[in-house]
Amino acid sequence: MSELRLPPVARPGDSVNDVDTPALVLELDAFEENMRTMQALAELHGVSLRPHAKAHKCPEVSLRQIALGADGICCQKVTEAVPFARAGVKDILIANEVVGAQKLALLARLAAEARMTVCVDHPEALAALSAALDAHQSCVDVLVEVDIGQKRCGVQSHAEAVALADQVARLPNVRFAGIQAYHGGIQHKHSFEQRQRAAEKGARLAAQYVKALQQAGHVCEVVTGGGTGTAAFDAASGVFTEVQPGSYAFMDGDYGAMEWGDLMVLRHALFLLGTVISVPTPERAVLDVGLKSTTAESGLPRVAGRDGLRCTGLNDEHCLLAADEAGARPALGERLRLIPAHCDPTFNLHDEVVGVRNGKVEAVWPVAARGLSR
Amino acid sequence: MSELRLPPVARPGDSVNDVDTPALVLELDAFEENMRTMQALAELHGVSLRPHAKAHKCPEVSLRQIALGADGICCQKVTEAVPFARAGVKDILIANEVVGAQKLALLARLAAEARMTVCVDHPEALAALSAALDAHQSCVDVLVEVDIGQKRCGVQSHAEAVALADQVARLPNVRFAGIQAYHGGIQHKHSFEQRQRAAEKGARLAAQYVKALQQAGHVCEVVTGGGTGTAAFDAASGVFTEVQPGSYAFMDGDYGAMEWGDLMVLRHALFLLGTVISVPTPERAVLDVGLKSTTAESGLPRVAGRDGLRCTGLNDEHCLLAADEAGARPALGERLRLIPAHCDPTFNLHDEVVGVRNGKVEAVWPVAARGLSR
Fold first, then answer.
1. What is the mean pLDDT of residues A243-266?
2. Which end of chain A is more exposed for a tag (fewer CB within 10 A), N or C?
3. How far apart are alpha carbons A228 and A239 in whole angstroms?
4. Which CATH class is domain B28-248?
5. What rounded mean pLDDT belongs to chain B?
6. Rounded to two decimals, what is the model's pTM?
7. Which of B113, B316, B319 best tests the A interface by mutation, with the highest count of A CBs <10 A?
8. Per-residue pLDDT, A3
9. Is the fold of A16-25+266-366 the same as that of A90-245?
10. CA geometry: angle A8, A12, A14, nearest 5 deg
11. Rounded CA gap, B52 and B140, in Å?
């Protein structure tokens, strides 16, 4: 079976027409412009930009964000951080609670290689964190996660936040650095005004936590939060010292459909390339992409640049397309670009992302943290 | 960074309590019983069982199905077949249309190593297939895919089916073997009776295709189709010579919620193991699993074996749980088993599946075809 190797999805120098499908394609001009746009926004307001790597799981992306001025990255899981640390990222916030002996041991090892910060929302989890770090003789910064309305993780009261900060002060190998106040739900509010009002409310709640902690003697150097949807409001709030958007560099169907006002122009840079494998009727076509190359929890993908052609369903390995106008149906073998509805889990389905510019493949980057959810 | 290796998800001999999370856990007793149940059903009716490997993407699973009597496997994509061929599977149906030069070249190389069969529904695709095989001096069996109501791929008329079979007869390196008549939608009809009636209608339509082809001089050795939901009806139909279920070995939330009558008893064998990372209120808990370890297009996962505890949302790396009864909320650090709503895309998110028996890890199998969607 020595001949049976998998062909590469693409090679640098290839025409984009020769990229095998399904393939995740990144238009580098738009990607770079999006990165500059968000970096400029952060600098305008004097806040740190700490892009979230869960969106892309690709160290090559993070290295470019840091080269443009980002102050580090976020990861959502401890294993996810490993390829980024290996690639040389030196400042990583695990923007999440870390529970479990294996995870704490790995975090402690990571903390010997990079500046690590982690969220806590429970005294037992904090005690276990300190003990694991002590066993490995490493240290992390700790953020108390506060719930500003998401109803996910995070403490529910000022008293709990202060108690955790007090506990940090008493424990070895952990240092209190501030709070994380993230509200995922409001990132996706379609209306600009509703999103702005929700972000302002979140910032007010975060500010009240900062004040309560300060009154108890705990200075919040870091107030972090904000995703792509609210970053512009959070950066301007005077409360957040840092924003952690991820999707902004790529954009997806969900974010692309929102009202953005004129605060920030972000372009679709990420596409899922597919091939038409069946044209059973004049009104229908089937693409070779499906639930194993993108996801449907935020809706169906959109066909880019093709009027009158709609995605009507996504099966495991098939995307159903309906031509709403005569002549809109693509031909057998034709290649189409879809805009994934949700970029984060889409990246997590691909081993590589194909960077293209002016119709040529410029780079093929490993999605090195794909699947690293522990 | 030499120290920074990822810890294994589990090791054979470990207690299931030491498996890191998120982890895909397969209860081997239930898995083996499900495999025997479907094999016995196929043998009872004298049809071939060709389990679909897209459900699990794990060669170790296919080898066990073949050892129990399965006549080969299905794959949905050409790259997906590669790890199975490497593992020694000698008879593979690509139960799908194959379009594109890279894919045809790989199929031709596979056909030198295993008996390969592939579906066609278009004369241009068939001509390209024959030409690619000719260039590599290999041969495949061809099934004409016929649409029995799914409105996905497949020819729309007897005339088209006959024309394709005629074309196969004229072309080199391809041999006409029969038809594929698969209807994915009816697999998931909840009502036993509605599913039975829909399967019977599908079998009648398939039989009409077989008759039309026979009248044109083309013998259908193979009439293949049927998934987990209709396999019992299709096997008994007298029309199908082969069934291609995949999920039956594992079961999932969607299939588990259906009416099964007493034709076949299939047990939940596949679970997603998670750890409670946050307990912000007495009514809420958060698990460390999310859209990167399971999927939501068929609904939310269910909590196994825990009354009064419900999954209310799935974010990228968080699963939100609501306790509907006092005392039902799990403790911080507690480990829970979820039943994924849809097993196929869930397997595709994991690099390994952890086989357990009586609370012990017996094997850790690579999901070797994970991500192979080209």
1. 95
2. N
3. 17
4. alpha beta
5. 97
6. 0.97
7. B316
8. 63
9. no
10. 80
11. 19
